[in-house]
């Protein structure tokens, strides 16, 4: 009787929240190829999680596939991955349908707090993968970025501003900034490669000195904090957050480091140039302050826009 009641409740929840309980063939193919790279322990966790999910939702023209468990906030013992970070990309699959002229689609596999969270497609799979049979789908390559059974790295410590240079020092001279110890050059480049992005030189200058920065109403994310927002036509990799306004980032798989602003209502998406410093200062109304300070110091230089 109780089992029947639970099933009825789950059906009601799916109707309420939308979604389905079944993965599509191309989604299963992505997970199957990731599964081949996993240890037996990680494979068991993945299989058990897939059995426990109640709802699978698809958003942004099916570019974003999310997994939900509605029964309880408490997961049974042994059903979580050891990687417990927030929105952690663990693997990427590149695939396409076998039809001539079809574009290669990138699919990122994301964990959140130890659970399979989402599959994130670079373009909508509706017109290509959705129309293809399983045997027609070709896997181009797969890359595992992180062992999901590896414990999270220790929290990056804060650092002082004594060795800052360039525009980061200018900010710290005029405002209180919160800094963190920078990652190694190899680690930074691996993360940028993982997201498939090119970033502005002034953002790279910041990463050499600090793994992210908070000043006033702005947070510039470190490489390890970069996150994605999947939109119907684009995928934005967020580099900076401006309180009560929105975010600034670059498109995934970009050819150049053009920056875009997305407001908090997700209805204003527009280019803001090629300098992260200039884009943030413009949003916060800081540019006049910094330029006036430069003039007082005997220099009339302005932030580079590219």
- What string, H for helix and E for strand, traces the elements in order? HHHEEEEEEHEHHEEEEEEEHH
Number of helices: 8
Q: Unreliable segments (pLDDT under 50, ≥5 consecutive)?
A: 1-5, 288-305
DSSP summary, beta strand count: 14
Average predicted confidence as pLDDT = 86
Strand count, sense and barrel status of the largest sheet are:
8 strands, antiparallel
Q: Report the sheet-strand fraction.
A: 25-35%
Structural class: alpha+beta
Rg for CA atoms: 22 Å
Q: Between the first and last Cα atoms, what is the distance in angstroms?
A: 66 Å
What share of residues is helical?
25-40%
Describe the structure.
By secondary structure, this protein is α+β, with helices and mostly antiparallel strands. It folds into two domains: 2-144, no CATH class; 166-296, SMI1/KNR4-like, CATH 3.40.1580.10. The protein is 29% helix and 25% strand. It is built from eight helices and 14 strands. It has helices spanning 2-17, 25-35, 40-52, 166-174, 185-195, 201-209, 276-284, 287-296; strands spanning 55-59, 64-68, 88-97, 105-112, 115-121, 137-144, 177-179, 213-215, 218-220, 227-230, 235-242, 246-251, 260-263, 269-271. The strands form two sheets. Strands 7, 8, 9, 10, 11, 12, 13 and 14 form an eight-stranded antiparallel β-sheet that branches. The radius of gyration is 22 Å and the shape is globular. Residues 1-5 and 288-305 have low confidence and may be disordered.
């Amino acid at each position: 009787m109780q089992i029947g009641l639970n099933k009825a409740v789950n059906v009601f929840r799916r109707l309420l929240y939308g979604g389905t309980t079944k993965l599509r063939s191309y989604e299963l193919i992505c997970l199957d190829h990731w599964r081949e790279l996993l240890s037996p322990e990680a494979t068991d966790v993945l299989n058990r999680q897939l059995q426990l999910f109640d709802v699978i939702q698809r958003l942004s023209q099916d570019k974003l596939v999310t997994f939900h468990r509605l029964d309880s906030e408490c997961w049974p013992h042994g059903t979580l991955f050891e990687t417990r970070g927030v929105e952690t990309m663990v693997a990427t699959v590149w695939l396409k349908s076998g039809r001539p002229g079809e574009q290669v689609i990138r699919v990122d596999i994301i964990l959140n707090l130890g659970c399979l969270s989402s599959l994130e497609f670079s373009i909508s799979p509706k017109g290509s993968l959705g129309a293809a049979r399983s045997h027609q789908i070709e896997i181009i390559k797969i890359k595992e970025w992180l062992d999901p059974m590896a414990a999270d790295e220790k929290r990056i410590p804060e650092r002082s501003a004594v060795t800052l240079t360039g525009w980061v020092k200018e900010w710290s001279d005029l405002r209180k900034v919160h800094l963190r110890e920078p990652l190694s050059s190899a680690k930074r480049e691996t993360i940028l490669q993982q997201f498939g992005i090119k970033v502005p030189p002034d953002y790279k200058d910041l990463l050499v000195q600090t793994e992210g920065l908070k000043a006033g109403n702005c947070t510039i994310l470190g490489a390890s904090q970069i996150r994605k927002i999947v939109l119907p036509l684009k995928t934005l990799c967020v580099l900076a957050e401006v309180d009560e306004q929105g975010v600034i980032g670059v498109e995934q798989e970009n050819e150049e480091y053009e920056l875009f602003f997305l407001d908090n209502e997700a209805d204003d998406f527009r280019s803001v140039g090629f300098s992260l410093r200039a884009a943030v200062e413009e949003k916060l109304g800081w540019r006049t302050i910094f330029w006036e300070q430069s003039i007082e110091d005997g220099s009339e230089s302005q932030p580079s826009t590219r």
